[in-house]
Amino acid sequence: MHSYYLHTENATQALDDIAKGLSNVRLSTDLHLSEQDFSLIDKELVLDEDNKLTVTELKKIIKRQGESISVVMAIWTLWKIVVLAITN
To answer: What is the pTM of this model?
Structure first.
């Protein structure tokens, strides 16, 4: 069984290509070590016969990673406020 890492860029590319009606998309699922073509069938990204992602699942990947970035930015902002309060 393969392991895949899909980040926002991959999910966005797959969604764009599904919307364009393309039959495949070229992605890196191993942190840009390599790229390969994946099929787009019935509005799903087919990673292999056991792993398919729907449009809804691809959108969740984008949303989840966006939320993670927002949390990191909020923590960073809070840290800057604390440092400013201590140093002033």
So the answer is: 0.69
